[in-house]
Each structure stands twice: as C-alpha cells, then as structure tokens.
Amino acid sequence: MPKGRIAGVVRSWDDEQGWGVIDTPETPGGCFVHFSNIAGSGYRTLHSGEPVLLTYEQPGFKQDGYDFRALTVWPDR
C-alpha cells in the first residue's frame, strides 16, 4: 500500500547500477530507489545529499536489503 508524499535525502546513489537509498524518518533503515521510479523524462539520476520528495511502500519483502521501496521520487530542487 503506497504511503503519502514525504521529504527525504539521498544517502547514496550508484549511476552504473541505477539505484540508491533515500533516508527519511518514516523509512527506518533506508528506502530503496531505482532510476525508473524518478519522475521525469530522459536520463534520470540522483546525487548523495540531494533533497527529494517521494511516495513509498513497504512491500513485505526486502528489496535489495531494504524494508521500504520508493514508488515515485521527485528531486526537490
């Protein structure tokens, strides 16, 4: 079940693999994010320390070791 839009900060991002982790108080331990979940068109990437807005879910399994998975991420520039 998706949760409402919240603010977070990118902990880490790997351009080669196309995924990273976002930290928020609502997602203890971090929230997995894949490049395909970043809103926008063309090349989509994030940067460590970047503020973002996101919706997320707790899928009931670990996504690459994380209990939470981002559904949509908007860079908060």
Write the layout of secondary structure elements.
Blueprint: E1 6-14, E2 19-23, E3 31-34, E4 51-57, E5 68-75
Parallel strand pairs: 3-5
Antiparallel strand pairs: 1-2, 1-4, 2-3, 4-5
Task: Explain how this protein is built.
There is one protein chain. The protein is mainly β. Helix content is 0%, strand content 43%. The chain has a 5-stranded mixed beta barrel with strand order 1-2-3-5-4. The protein is globular.
Alpha plus pi helix count: 0
Oligomer: single chain
Radius of gyration: 11 Å
**Mean pLDDT, nearest integer?**
94
Strand tally is: 5
State the shape. Answer: globular
Order of helices and strands: EEEEE
Give the fraction of residues assigned to helices: under 10%
Describe the largest sheet: 5 strands, mixed, barrel
In the predicted model, the low-confidence regions spanning at least 5 consecutive residues are none
Strand order of the largest sheet: 1-2-3-5-4
Strand content: 35-45%
Which structural class matches the secondary elements? mainly beta
Distinctive features:
single chain, 77 residues, mainly beta, five-stranded mixed barrel, globular, Cold shock domain-containing protein
What's a concise summary of this model?
This protein has 77 residues and is an all-beta fold. The chain contains no helices and 5 strands. Residues 5-75 form the CSD domain.
